[in-house]
Amino acid sequence: MRRLPAALLAAALTLGPTLPAHAATPLPPGGGCLPAPQGTAPDIPWPQRQLAPQRVWDLTKGQGITVAVVDTGVDAHTPQLAGRVLPGADVAGSGTADDDCYGHGTFVAGIIAAAPAPGTGFTGVAPEATILPIRVTSPADSTLTSTALANGIRRAVDAGARVINVSASTSVPDAGLAAAVQYAEAHDVVVVASAANGAQEGDPVTYPASYPTVLAVGAVDSTGQHADFSQTGPYLALVAPGVDVVSVGPRGAGQWQGSGTSYAAPFVAGTAALVRSYHPQLSAAQVRHRLEVTANHPAAALPDPALGWGTVNPQAAVTAVLPEEGAAGATVVAPPPARAAAAPVRDEVGPVLAILGVLALVVLIPGAVMVSRLSAAGRRRGWRPARTAERRP
């Protein structure tokens, strides 16, 4: 059984009341759980401002779509997720996965589906999607095995997930993990995975991100630039915000802040939920294609090793009309056929009448003036005939 480093679990996300920058600190010793977040983000975080998923919320908020978070569990009592977290499954132990010691899975789930709440500008991409937590680690051991990850993907498929988010990776190819990804594809499930954070450690190929049917996601900062830690490669499909990202934590209200491709992937998973909700007829392959071709493309040959097809664009992903989708895509209303402009009817009478009218005015106006002058003279004489001088011989 191969073990893959769970770098995503090796650091805790901590926030003070003023939301300081992410600080990487070890997990509490002895397998202890992280405390609830103490800070709150009152304003809209930069990823939500830039991606603006609310532009399509009149059309879809992800309702009817179950998104599996294959991770550390998800706290079902976190206020912005409450009521939309299923019991899930714990493949690393037994029982459910609707609690979260480490907080990582809850943070990821919040990016996907956190609902609006008073006092904070933070919301998830698809705030009416349902979260299916699949725990692949145990509180007693923060390491993650490829076997548990593969089992988690299969369990998510069998439980009815339409989208699966995997914010974990290994640099060692594994037959069981590859088979699990193929299992998801055979059941028409979109799998989204983080590309990992090893760009400065040799940029190794990572799995499951590099499998052909997986949407591999890298990270960008608030300027849209490639994050220096985000791994690159020809398999990279998309990028999303992954630097100073805000989301929720377990065991209370408030938000944390963190950086990593782990937190870029759920922006894509949330967008996939929006698309699957609004376009239920599309296959998993068509959803992947739609996310790629509607992304904000970089000025480079596509796919770019560092940016893939570009930054995910929720509005375009939901609303774009793609001719290649044919009958499975949005219905296109054809415009009426073009017609030649009707030739104007020649007016034979109008010009004649116009000329006669002008002539009448030329004749009548002087006459009217003469009559007016005579009438005025007659009124002055009391309408008596004018006297005439008779000249005698």
Automatic annotation (TrEMBL):
Cell compartment(s), UniProt: Cell membrane
Record's signal peptide: 1-23
The organism of origin for this protein: Amycolatopsis sacchari
Active-site annotation: D71, H104, S262
Gene Ontology cellular component terms for the protein in this record: plasma membrane
Similarity section: Belongs to the peptidase S8 family.
Name used for this protein in its record: Type VII secretion-associated serine protease mycosin
Transmembrane intervals: 349-371
GO annotation, biological process: proteolysis
Keywords, ordered alphabetically: Cell membrane, Hydrolase, Membrane, Protease, Serine protease, Signal, Transmembrane, Transmembrane helix
Pfam families per record: Peptidase_S8
